[in-house]
Write a structure and sequence with these properties.
The complex is a heterotrimer of chains A (about 625), B (about 130) and C (about 180). Chain A is an alpha+beta fold and about 625 residues long. Chain A has 17 helices and 10 strands. Chain A is flat, with a radius of gyration of 26 Å. Chain B has helices at about 1-15, 25-35, 55-65, 70-85, 100-125. The chains are: A alpha+beta (about 625), B mainly alpha (about 130), C alpha/beta (about 180). Chains in contact: A-B, A-C, B-C.
Chain lengths: ~625, ~130, ~180
């Protein structure tokens, strides 16, 4: 019953989509271009029905309605309420429904927010956005319907993969989608602006808000995924360069570049074509992310149910949109081309270009690294892996010039900057940072000289961004975000260099000496919980002159489906994280114990949140 | 700009006056090697992270090879003849991977040239 | 104008290239197997025999009579090994075929128990306590079955996963060639 309601609501949404596209076309082609109120109403109705549809699925999950295939496959009566709710989008079908909900919601908000803009531009944005919505509707109804029936109705569901039963991962997809879907709006609006010849500082001002919104959500979404990997996967890392992670990072680079170039367009009415290309690329990358994850073409830790026909649909749709965008760009290209578009070498404009340059480079490394194996296999039939060492080798060396440019960039003026021949103060600061970083790296025991450069450059960036805080000329949100970014980078680097870990097989009662610590495996206890059995280990770490630390990591053996997971116990302080995780070995009484010492871990999360907070300030300020 | 150049020069002088020393602990070497090897059983994990029988055996093998005095390259190429290039996370430069390594760098240089052209023209006009 | 058309042409070609490659890529298996990597020079390893406890060299497994030997990697704790066992038994009834077992990381008592229960198709069983022999011949999971040529000790064919009826018939047909 509830599934039927949900299904028919989806059909209504589709019908509305078609009507809105036709109506808008009619208005665009009419002599006096108007944006009539009935379009508002139609979009509102569309939003209403997609909300109904989403609620139906939610209710089906809450009441464990196993006549619904999606609920049956992904839920279980013994699952806690919170995960019943997050189970709605923890699967392929439901997550697409959420994706659609956000698509329509954003369009609605966009229209409400754009009362004063040019009608033709607004109508065209609606058309492009509705084409995207329609594409996803067709996709969901024909290949991944969340409301399919199951008969006879089973008594119990298959359950949600326990590795996904985690608070961070429960809110990770919705946040990430807000970012992805925001980029779809930027895509539609930039194409509309190109056709209606509106690419100017006014448009930049109008769309900037949406660029910031998607950027904030994408940033937070990536962070949540990373938090999940750190706490739940139990390998102690927070970034594995797994294809699925890379796929969310690619639009982020693009969006960060766009975030900077759109300001140039707003303030200087320049970089028009480049900004449009970035807008389109951001969305194309978000879409290819969906394609790469959903189609199962990548060999990764976390892929959704694999179905090549779904992959083919998204791929075709993606290429339809890309071809559409390229064609539109080429038809309307000349009108937007301005000849006097050059910059002075030392100016804020150039600094933004340098930012974009590095962002595009990082993007190309991640993009090529992620899809190269697919291309190689198709062309030569050879399979290779591209993992962390590749990305580190190609990205890390480039961080040094990037940080140095970033230290100077924000201080430059628009149009043209006069500069002193030699700035002794800067050199002095730089020498001090070199000394500091030498001491840091030297004491760490890692004697790679390269690290000295890297740390020096990032400390230099930190000092510069800190000094920028007191400069009046720079916008406040920018100061905050740049400072947060420099803290983030420094924490990641120090974390990478200073982290210590050991990995050994232990029995109850065993002791291991590591660095200046003694780690004791004291005892193990068994418990029965509602939906899993529990093995709780008890570890103690003794360090001379310090209070002993107690750790209680867990092994959970879930009953539905039967999967065992390891829950790390992490003691967090402002300076470092101590991390113990253990897992069952085949023999039963021996456990694999992994201890990790990770400095500045908490600062990685804090700085990302501050980074996003800076973005929020930028929206509020206007 | 000139300031930056000077700083970079200073940097290089400091670098050259230092000797590079490498950590040579066996355990660290084992960790480093296993982190670069991909497990064939749990294909998203490295041999270091995985607890599968295969990963455990590979660890034993590497310990044995280190004791025998094999260097990293020998250990990698031994495993590569057994399981193919796929087993290494770091693709080695070869005819299959030359584009993978070079293409991003080409794009970087190309992008730099574009920016330079855009910025420098105005400078000439002045 | 001309310049622009060329640009458009190049970009379109690129887009078509990417599209086709990804579409073909979709059909490829994304999990990696080593089925078509055949190792040519297997080092001459030695190991104990399960029942007789004597040290046996890899090369001494071969004699002049057969074209190749079948090397099967198994363990008593491995469930799919159970399902393939009946096919190994059938193969062993063929007098031209010689099957050698490699007992992988197993408890010896359990292994003997397993064979007592299901029958013993192996002419000899080598013990691989740490799994290093399995790596030497390029195995990574069990069960795996290898056809090793008698003449130059090369692996000519490998089957990853349990032997079933189809695989069994293939092995027999290779033998008849």
């Amino acid at each position: 019953m509830i599934s039927e309601l949900g299904h028919y609501s989806l059909v209504f949404v589709t019908i509305f989509s078609a009507i809105i596209i036709l109506q808008s076309f009619k208005y665009v082609l009419s002599e006096q271009i108007v944006f009539k109120n009935n379009l508002y109403n139609l979009i509102f109705l569309q939003l209403f029905f997609i909300v109904v549809s989403f609620l139906c699925l939610l209710i089906a999950f809450l009441y464990s309605d196993f006549s619904n295939v999606t609920v049956y496959n992904n839920s279980h009566t013994s699952k806690p309420l919170f995960y019943k709710v997050s189970g709605v989008w923890g699967n392929h079908e439901g997550s697409l429904l959420l994706w659609l909900l956000v698509l329509i919601l954003f369009l609605f908000l966009f229209i409400l927010n754009s009362k004063k803009v040019d009608n033709k531009y607004k109508l065209l944005t609606v058309i492009f956005q509705e084409i995207i919505i329609l594409g996803f509707l067709v996709f969901i109804i024909f290949t991944s319907n969340p409301f399919e029936y199951l008969f006879p109705v089973p008594n119990e569901g298959l359950g949600l993969n326990p590795i996904l039963q985690d608070p961070a991962l429960a809110i990770h997809p919705p946040i990430l989608y807000l970012g992805y879907v925001g980029s779809s709006l930027i895509f539609s609006s930039s194409l509309a602006a190109v056709i209606s010849n509106n690419v100017d500082s006014g448009w930049a001002k109008h769309i900037k808000k949406w660029v910031f919104i998607s950027w904030i959500f994408l940033t937070l979404g990536i962070m949540l995924g990373s938090v999940w990997a750190y706490y739940e996967l139990g390998w102690g890392g927070f970034w594995f360069w797994d294809p699925v992670e890379n796929v969310s990072l690619m639009p982020w680079f693009c969006l960060t570049a766009l975030l900077h170039s759109i300001v140039v367009l707003e303030k200087r009415n320049s970089l028009k074509n480049w900004t449009i290309i970035l807008s389109i690329a951001t969305f194309a990358l978000s879409m290819s992310g969906t394609f790469l994850v959903r189609s199962g073409i990548l060999n990764s830790i976390h892929t959704f149910a694999n179905d090549p026909s779904r992959g083919l649909f998204i791929l075709t749709f993606l290429f339809f949109l890309v071809v559409l965008a390229i064609t539109i760009l080429f038809i309307y290209f000349d009108k937007n081309e301005t000849k006097s578009d050059n910059f002075f070498l030392i100016s804020k404009e150039s600094a933004v270009l340098v930012n974009n340059w590095f962002m595009m480079y990082f993007l190309s490394v991640v993009l090529i690294g992620t899809i190269y194996p697919i291309f190689l296999e198709v062309i030569t039939n050879d399979k290779i892996s591209v993992g962390a060492p590749f990305y580190h080798k190609l990205i890390v060396p480039f961080l040094i010039p990037f940080f140095i440019f970033m230290s100077f960039g924000p201080r430059l003026k628009w149009i043209k900057n006069s500069y002193k021949k030699i700035n002794y103060k800067q050199i002095l600061i730089f020498l001090i940072t070199l000394l500091i970083s030498f001491l840091i790296v030297h004491n760490s025991g890692v004697r790679y000289l390269f690290s000295i450069f890297l740390i020096a450059a990032s400390i230099f960036l930190l000092i510069s961004s800190f000094r920028d805080l007191f400069k009046k000329k720079i916008q406040f949100p920018q100061k905050i975000s740049h400072l947060a970014f420099s803290i983030l980078i420094l924490s990641i680097l120090i974390n990478g260099i200073y982290s210590k870990e050991f990995n050994s097989n232990m029995r109850v009662g065993d002791q291991v000496k590591f660095m200046n610590k003694t780690i004791t495996f004291k005892s193990i206890n068994f418990y029965e919980e509602k939906n899993y059995r529990l093995l709780r280990g008890n570890f103690e770490i003794n360090e001379s002159g310090k209070n002993p630390l107690n750790f209680v990591p867990e092994i959970r053996i879930y009953n539905q489906p039967v999967i065992s997971t390891s829950e790390a116990d992490i003691k967090t302080t402002l300076l470092n994280d101590n991390f113990i995780v253990f897992s069952l070995l085949k023999e039963g009484e021996i456990f694999n114990v992994r201890y990790q010492y990770k400095p500045f871990m908490i600062w990685i999360w804090i700085s990302v949140m501050v980074l996003a907070f800076g973005g929020t300030l930028a929206i509020i300020k206007k | 700009m000139k300031t930056t150049l000077k700083l970079i020069t200073i940097f290089i002088i400091i670098v050259n006056s230092q000797n590079i020393l490498h950590a040579n602990d066996q355990n660290e070497r084992l960790d480093k090697l296993t982190k670069n090897l991909r497990c064939l059983i749990c294909q998203g994990q490295s041999v270091y992270d995985s607890q599968s029988d295969f990963a455990l055996s590979v660890r034993d093998l590497i310990i044995k090879k280190i004791d025998d005095g094999d260097n990293d390259q020998e250990i990698y190429s031994y495993l590569k003849t057994k399981y193919g290039d796929w087993i290494m996370y770091e693709p080695q430069l070869g005819k299959n991977t030359i584009l993978l390594w070079i293409l991003p760098l080409i794009l970087f240089i190309f992008g730099g040239l574009l920016i330079f052209r855009k910025a420098i023209i105005k400078l000439d006009k002045k | 104008m001309k310049n622009r058309n060329i640009k458009f042409f190049i970009i379109s070609l690129l887009v078509i290239f990417i599209f086709t490659t990804l579409a073909i890529g979709l059909k490829k298996e994304s999990t990696y197997t080593t089925e078509n990597i055949n190792i040519e020079n297997i080092e001459n390893f030695r190991s104990k025999e399960l029942f007789s406890n004597e040290l046996i060299e890899f090369t001494s497994l071969f004699d002049q009579n057969e074209k190749f030997i079948i090397l099967n990697i198994w363990a008593s704790w491995c469930l799919p090994c159970r399902s393939e066992h009946e096919f190994l038994m059938k193969l062993s009834q063929n007098s031209d075929i010689k099957i050698v077992g490699l007992n992988y990381k197993d408890n010896q008592e359990n292994a003997k128990e397993f064979l007592k229960e299901l029958g013993n198709p192996f002419e000899k069983i080598l013990i691989d306590r740490k799994g290093l022999i399995a790596i030497e011949i390029g195995a990574y999971g069990i069960p795996e079955t290898y056809l090793i040529d008698n003449y130059d000790k090369k692996i000519i064919k490998k089957y990853i996963g349990p032997i079933d009826k189809i695989k069994m018939e293939k092995i027999i047909s290779i033998l008849k060639l």
